[in-house]
Amino acid sequence: MKHFDAELHVKGTSLFMDDFPAQENLLYAAVLVSPASHGEIVSIEIEKAEAIQGVKTIITAKDIPGENQIGNIIMDEPLLAEDRVHFIGEPIAVVLADNPQTARNAVKAINLEIHELPHVTDPREAFAKGMLISPPRTFSLGDTSIAWDRCDVVVEGRADSGGQEHVYLETQGSVAIPLENNCIRIYAGTQGPTFVQKVTSRVLGIPMHKVEVDVGRLGGAFGGKEDQATPWAVMAALGVQITKQPVKIILNRNEDMTWTGKRHPYTSDFKLGLSNDEKILAFEVTYYQNGGAASDLSTAILERTLFHSTNAYYIPNVKATGICCRTNLPPNTAFRGFGAPQAMFVLESAIHKAAILMGIDTEQIQEKNLLNPGDGFPYGMIFEGDEIRRSWMKLNELYNPVKVREEIKEFNSVNILKKKGISFMPVCFGISFTNISLNQANALVHVYTDGSVGVSTGAVEMGQGVNSKIRQVAARTFSISIEKVKVESTNTTRAANTSPTAASSAADMNGNAVRIACSNILNRLLTLARKQLGVQEKDQVELRNETVTVNGIGTDLLWGKLVGKAYRDRISLSSQAHYATPGLYFDSSEEKGRPFAYHVTGTALTEVTLDRLRGTYSLDSVKIVHDCGTSINPLVDRGQIEGGLLQGIGWVTLEELKYSSETHELLSNSLATYKIPDIYFAPDEVQIEFLENLSENGGVFNSKAVGEPPFMYGIGTYFALLNALQECNSEIEPEYSTPLSAEKILMLLEQSPD
Ligand code: LUZ
Ligand code: MOS
């Protein structure tokens, strides 16, 4: 099974937002944004800009007919600023013109006067000033206060992880067109078509049924289009409502990088206590999350940080507190892993620090404390599987890390200028939206009279291959060829009230809805087949490879013929189905429940080589044992594991958001100054082994979600580099702060020459 879009992508024939065919009267939007991190809008003069030839109109907050509010969880974000601005890039006005260049020129001609106010960009400072997005939350297990006395070793420290730009290949954008009777169709580049529909309805002051949102595909998203695709789509729709003309908006790379939110930077304090025999007895952590100027998804992301504070380990006494801090940055948002990578980085830092103090290899502590079946998480759920230990053992079996360690010691003892390092990175990631209501999906399946099939769901194809999996699910349920199945665009008139394609669960949930809808139709067809063949017994008649079989023996009743007969007999060939992930509940007053359908786990082994003169490094290999359940598309899953790994590696190594010290303007605002991993930077060797796992889970056909968990294998690269650094000089006081750029490594090496 392949990724069915691959051929279109390679030939360049897949259609993205900017390929949308030019429409008559199409207007192009450009946006005036705040140049200041915080300030009062003194005046906006648009007359000169509006007079420019080709400019149709300029929209500001006062032109909004409905509510000027695009908030999701907390209603704290206007579409267009009214009298105050809270971050550089906050939209203030939308210019509509007959071409994009004119629109951008007109933006420059607007006279904007802002009275600047002091701004806060550091979450600890925001916390000290009481600038919180929501009250702090604490997850706990056992009692840390009495546990410290029993510990032989206690380490305390601080760990900071940086933000991350999404760098989806396709920048944010949207096209909206007027339909009759003041209805609007929006072609939106979003992971959440229903959210776009809902917010458009709110801002335009029209019911949701007047807003149709359609998504063909996205050129990448990674969480960056879960919430933050919405404003651009709503602006386009607002432009349509005001002008009755189609409106297109496409951000250029620089605008996109400067204006939109990123992965949340975190700064955290940790305390870890162990016994002399490497058992972790207690862990306390406080996460300060840099939320940015509006809440966006920050509270949900912080919640997932708390869920993953203990990652793949069992710790009997835990106290994890999360604080969502409001700062004057663009609102930070969803990004693959959704707060979990930040949590896992802190615990790995704590373990690393403890291992140094104890004079042992980090993996001794890691292995000793991996979750066993029956161990509890601080949030009350029990880890039932044995996959974490099995993935660890499998990795040992396949790659013999003890021998690798020895070889590295040997290499390091004979090489002066180059030193190798190694790390293990176990991952345990919970699958399901932590907001339980979102764990539902629906599908609409039509079988046409020629036997071809059209499938609509709420899942958005963003390159991750969800449409390939959905095609497979439909083809497999009917037992027909994959060529007979087409996945339609994601459209709010065919799949209503959908959850965003997020939380790694789109294939699970939408796939299950498709399976149910196809089964409904199949059952009608099989009833007809039995009647046709005069067979009474229900399970004697089946469809196999487009052929009706009786007791496994083929008949001449083929799929196409059966479908045609069903139509003539006036039997419905369509079905809509709904799927809700079973068994989920959470009591937020106790912070306990069963928030996840299941966990995805695995372990990565990373080897790196550091150049101690230059601070540069190369990634020798990453070996992963990963649990995909019974994969329905191993090639797609492998692609997700490789992609997630590399994105995670980028986060902890190269990707550095640099801001000017005075205004806190983003300096790394292009792909020339913000470096993401390329094929030359990628590990020389990436080996991925699927862990055999036949146990029941909530996924479709017993497969498991794959999108986010592999991101966190990338954290292993950070600790392999620290290990190599220590091989250069064991005196180096490690600092737990990502990204670990070559520049930072060089400074650490220079600090303490040996
Ligand atoms: N998005 C969301 C997510 O809205 N809720 C979640 O729990 C989640 N988890 C991972 C990624 N995106
Ligand atoms: Mo997400 S981080 O949009 O699954």
Description:
The protein has 754 residues and is α+β, with helices and mostly antiparallel strands. It has three domains: 6-118 and 172-250, Alpha-Beta Complex (Aldehyde Oxidoreductase, domain 3), CATH 3.90.1170; 266-434 and 589-749, Aldehyde oxidase/xanthine dehydrogenase, molybdopterin binding domain (Aldehyde Oxidoreductase, domain 4, 2-Layer Sandwich); 440-580, Aldehyde oxidase/xanthine dehydrogenase, molybdopterin binding domain (Aldehyde Oxidoreductase, domain 4), CATH 3.30.365.10. Helices cover 29% and strands 27% of the residues. The protein contains 19 helices and 32 strands. An eight-stranded mixed beta sheet has the order 3-5-1-12-9-10-11-22. The chain starts with 5 loop residues before the first helix and ends with a helix. The mean pLDDT is 97. Residues 191, 223, 226, 334-336, 338, 502-503, 708 line the site of dioxothiomolybdenum(VI) ion.
Distance between the termini: 54 Å
What is the CATH superfamily classification of the largest domain?
Aldehyde oxidase/xanthine dehydrogenase, molybdopterin binding domain
Mean pLDDT: 97
Structural class of the secondary elements? alpha+beta
Ligands in the model, by name, code or SMILES, are: pteridine-2,4(1H,3H)-dione, dioxothiomolybdenum(VI) ion
**Which topology of the largest domain does CATH recognise?**
Aldehyde Oxidoreductase, domain 4
Number of domains: 3
Spatial strand arrangement across the major sheet: 3-5-1-12-9-10-11-22
| Number of β-strand runs | 32
Count of alpha/pi helices: 19
Shape: globular
The biggest beta sheet is recorded as: 8 strands, mixed
